[in-house]
Amino acid sequence: TGAPLAHLAYQDVKYWEKMSVIMDWARRNVQSTLFSCWAAHAAIYHFFGKNRKLNEQKLSGVYQHVVLNEHDELLRGFDPIFFAPHSRYGEISLADYAAIPELSVLAASDEGGAYIVASNDKRLVFVTGHPEYDPDSLKQEYQRDLSTNSQPKIPVNYFPNNDPKRSPMVNWRAHGSLLFTNWLNYYVYQTTPYDLNQLSEQSQVGSVNEYQK
Description:
The chain is α+β, with helices and mostly antiparallel strands. The chain has 7 helices and 6 strands; from the N terminus they run αβαββαβββαααα. It has a 6-stranded mixed beta sheet. It is globular, with a radius of gyration of 18 Å. The two termini are about 30 Å apart.
């Protein structure tokens, strides 16, 4: 949404109940749903009961990532190492993801942890960064934060020589486009059943209580 939700508990977000209804409806009626950044963490909490940890310092910049499963179709055509923007305070640990058998971490970075996570049935995809960002998106966020006297750090690996007066470096758009193309092709188009009623029958997400035990 772009809304400043980073420090709010999920239940304190005005539209949390409505969003929960939408997520449950999508799980029953949509072949594959892709959640980005805050929504990725929110969906992990909703479906699996794993809450994010909020860091004091915002993760902001363009980070190097490593492909962890080169055979997954979502990463088809990816280089072993690629870049992607992040802009968030929240983090869910790799250990929490590993504790959910239905999920696999497909790509990660040293600084930001899990980046692309998907359910084994391909129906849930969680992207903790922003592959869709325009060249100046992080710049606009940085300038917005400056205007609120929050003393933000300059986004990492973004401005040449770390100089905000210079035009940002863009090195993520090809892999960002490839990610969305692969998702639409391999996770949506080629896997959607002819009879959409089959989607509800295939849903096997465990309850929140099960993962909180």
